[in-house]
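Hi everyone, sorry if this is the wrong subforum. Our group has a chain we'd like a structural model of before ordering constructs, and none of us has done structure prediction before. Sequence below.
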Amino acid sequence: MTQEDLSKKISDLKEEKNGIILAHNYQIPEVQLEADHLGDSLGLARKSSEVDADIVVFAGVDFMAETAAMLNPEKKVLIPDREARCPMAGMLPVKLVREAKRDHPDAAVVLYVNTLAEARAEADVTCTSANSVQVVNALDEDEILFGPDRNLAWHVEQNTGKEIIPIPEDGYCYVHRMFSPEDIRLLKEEHPDAEVLVHPESAPEVQKLADYICSTSQMLGRAEKSSADEFVITTEVGLVHRLGREFPEKNFYPVLDEGICREMKKHDLEKVYRSLRDEKFVVEVPSEVAESARRATERMLEISS
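Answer:
Right subforum, don't worry. Here is the predicted structure as tokens:
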């Protein structure tokens, strides 16, 4: 089927089944364009709770769909490709969280939403890259267990003055780990007037070269309000597609064209269509896990509202 045919079939199924499509900023352009709501993990978590829908097709990775399922037990949450699993989330099994809590009984546990639900059920509160500093600053504790991304933990420590203990010791996003200071310097030589926007999952030496440290949603906001015409974008290339589409008068340069999340790109329009048509693959979180993880997520939403 052509993209136009698929789009028409998806539109008809959404109306028939009262369904919506949520898509992360790192999705391929065709899926971005088909989404009812496009955004980062925090924005999509909020949107999943606000929408009037019976079925939510989540074009993202596993932990994102789990968040939507936890927040909306009355809705059927689907993921088009069940192999869309975040490697970083898999670096923090619940066993490691429990061990860290035993070793640091007075510490607050803040887990990045890029973590599987079972681990998040052990957290006091979750966070995203957009609100991590705000969440940690809102806590009374000065000692924070933070996982799974070590680079985001470093960013939080620099901006809160609290003792941040990363769990695991070296959790990381393989895409953001690709970026080097030399990549940015080369682009700045070519485009000296460009603003450098860096995602906080990047290494500290890369963050230090940023004009602004930004989540994906914050990069969109910065591009909109900045007087600059050029931007060096230090995150997954999917966001560059959206930036170029929404701000065609400006130029956006990805630090690496190879900065691609293979797991995010597992979804395509055909899979979105089949997911909605066949109502699979259903994302389910055990009720006892969901209840605890939902509390940590809801606390995050309260702090960042």
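For your construct planning: The two ends are 42 Å apart (CA to CA). The chain has 14 helices and twelve strands.
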